[in-house]
Amino acid sequence: MPAKFIFTNILGVFVFNENYKLVDGLLFKDLDQFDEKEKHEKQIEEKHGSLEKPSGDDLYKILEFFKDKKYLSELRKKNIALTRVSVKDSVNNDLLIIQTIDAVEELNRTINLLTKRLREWYSLYNPEVSNKVKDHEKFVSSIVQKKKDKLLEELNIDKNDSLGAELKEKDVAAILLLASQINNHYKLRSHYEKYLQELEKETCPNLASILGVTISARLLDHSGSLKRLAEMPASTLQILGAEKALFRHLKNKRNPPPKYGMIHEHPLILNAPRKNHGRIARALADKASIAVRVDYFKGEFMGDKLRKDLEKKIKNLR
Amino acid sequence: MPAKFIFTNILGVFVFNENYKLVDGLLFKDLDQFDEKEKHEKQIEEKHGSLEKPSGDDLYKILEFFKDKKYLSELRKKNIALTRVSVKDSVNNDLLIIQTIDAVEELNRTINLLTKRLREWYSLYNPEVSNKVKDHEKFVSSIVQKKKDKLLEELNIDKNDSLGAELKEKDVAAILLLASQINNHYKLRSHYEKYLQELEKETCPNLASILGVTISARLLDHSGSLKRLAEMPASTLQILGAEKALFRHLKNKRNPPPKYGMIHEHPLILNAPRKNHGRIARALADKASIAVRVDYFKGEFMGDKLRKDLEKKIKNLR
């Protein structure tokens, strides 16, 4: 009986006659061969003349054929291998950016927790410095670098006026160990910010040039991937991160819809007069939406042009 | 008119006649002289014969005398100096222990946060290790010390079977930086545990030998000072940290009273059969209560004896 059907799966290309008996075939040696299955199918079709792909009942019967133990275990093994490869390949820069920005946020959280603790502890020794230096990062780095007397001198406080206790050297050392640990956190965070910059230069240079490294990463984190972010309309991108306010609005129309989400952190918005925030957010989201699509489809870099347009638009606003 | 009243404040010792006029006096030069005020009062009394301390209306009139500008500003200045000294002196080992245990707890919290983040991130690269090594500390230190291949080998996993992605070197480096930061947290924590041990050896050696360094520090933290802890009855010490359960019980008698608070973490309780937990907690709290009083009144070390008694008692329980 002449060959009728051609059927390809991960094991190989199989040719069946109309009674669903195997008449010819080619077993793939590895996944690379499977990737070139079209080529192999063509070779076989040239040999047998026109063959059809089974469907409906025919397909069902042919699949029965692979229930045979010999094929089934092989099929399972090869499928696992295939899955493994695609799991591996699914790790791309998007995921790395998301993990990195998550780590940065976690570092921010722990820096805050530990610095509050440090301030309380250090205040036993030198309360004046903790009171005067409000900025956490500055506080931590200055007590790591300078001794108590020097710090008091810089603040113009007579060291005899200090309300801090005289601690033993090892007690001070214990406090400063915590401080230098927090200092390392700050260093790590700025390292990650640089690393994010590199990653985004490859993955989403346009988006990063419009929104900045951190906001871009947060948007990616929030949407889950560059693909999903590129598929969003600009209006969604604009309010990403303000879901709570949005649903409050949808539930009860008396609440106004949110005008901006995460992009509100952008300096162009923060530095503008309050009444313009909404309009700038919309303009920003428009450009960002264009940028992320260009990035997703690997278009050329046009971040500078987009940014120039944006700045011109904002200048005309007031 | 003969001298009648003697009155001492931080400025000096003053002698007044019955019309509240100053007849004699001695000004203190510094706070050290004020500390020896009894001696100076005695000298003046010897000179004038018996003098009485003013009270009621007399005291009021004499205080009027110090409303004079000359005294008032001096009084204020010296009082500030005195306060400064007592603020400084109030920093004792109790406070350092409390700050240190607070820092340890904060480190525990941040270690947990950061390790969860690290596991997620590292799983992109090497999910098998994160799945197999459940203990956080072991996980962190092993990925800091060993390369992926080596780790997989130790777990008997063929490295071709790993589902982890092939990351670039700089991507792996970014992950490992977080790991080594967490590793430093662990090191800092164990340093603080040693430091706590030293502090408690001076402050509360008996308590520490009964309850262990960490539980002792937590009790101190919870009660606020060694003094307050020493003043507590053993039954309070027993349930310290279980306030919620206690008040639930007091509000509604159907809820049983708590049998133990923080001391439940003690190995003697944890390793005992459940039915004995309450009784061991009581015995432990009894001994701890004795220990903390000995510590507070700077008695001799008797922790070994107390612990031996305790262990005997517990052995007889079952």
Distance between the termini of chain A: 82 Å
CATH fold field value of the largest domain in chain A: Serum Albumin, Chain A, Domain 1
Supply the number of structural domains of chain A. 3
Order of strands across the biggest sheet of chain A?
1-2-3
What general form of chain A does the structure show? elongated
Biggest contact? A-B, 43 and 43 residues
Largest sheet of chain A: 3 strands, antiparallel
In helices, the fraction of residues of chain A equals 55-70%
* Element pattern of chain A in H and E: EEEHHHHHHHHHHHHHHHHH
Number of strands of chain A: 3
Question: How many H/I helical runs of chain A?
Answer: 17
Share of residues in strands of chain A: 5-15%
Report the radius of gyration of chain A as a whole number of Å. Answer: 31 Å
What structural category do the secondary elements of chain A indicate? mainly alpha
In the CATH hierarchy, the architecture of the largest domain in chain A is: Orthogonal Bundle
**On the 0-100 scale, what is the average pLDDT of chain A?**
89
- Oligomerization category of the chains in this entry: homodimer
Which CATH C-level class of the largest domain in chain A is it? Mainly Alpha
Q: Any low-confidence stretches of chain A, pLDDT <50, length ≥5?
A: none
